[in-house]
Amino acid sequence: MLRLLGRANSINVRKVLWTCHEIGLDYLREDWGRGFRPVSDPEFLALNPLAQIPTLVDGDTVLSESNAICRYLAAKHGRHDLLPADPAARARVERWMDWQAADLNPAWSYAFHGLSRRSPEHQDPARIAESVAAWSQQMRLLETQIGDGWILGDAFTLADLVLGVSVQRWLLTPFDKPALPRAEAYFERLRRRPAYVAHGGEGIA
């Protein structure tokens, strides 16, 4: 059985849980990370020297990085609806997954930790304002790409899954936001998926 190491309230662990539910996979999740067993524990570091959650153990395969884990699971189980086999179609999905990790997440990091987590290390007003501005810019870009369905049209893919937890974080972090009606409608569509209901972390930013 799959082992998934990481606390269930982590945004990145929730991506993998959501993916497992969409595919219909059984797994054993173990609590690691903030508030639970520390990722500095030698047992964890032996599996993942990056000391990050989630970590997936699938037989002899050990993976970290949530988006990579989601890709692996979809590809291994032939879920070409979530991650197409065609190289061009797959690249379009992965482009949005990479954008979420490389552009959207860094934009919100400081503001989220300062405003939602109330981290003492993230209370510089200027840096919060800078992060909010960058986050808003990225979300406005996303707003222009959303239609009446999913990010790539009629098919729900892994791109929507990873974007979904990020849009949720945007909506729940307390600051004055620009109106993004397409993003809000998109999130309401995501919330109707049973796998989101089970693992999206409703109310958890």
UniProtKB/TrEMBL annotation:
Domain GST N-terminal: residue ranges: 1-81
UniProt-listed Gene3D superfamilies: 1.20.1050.10, Glutaredoxin
Start and end residues of each GST C-terminal domain: 86-205
Keyword tags: Transferase
UniProt keyword annotation of Protein transport present: no
Annotated GO MF terms: transferase activity
Keyword Cell membrane on entry: no
Family: Belongs to the GST superfamily.
Name of this protein: Glutathione S-transferase
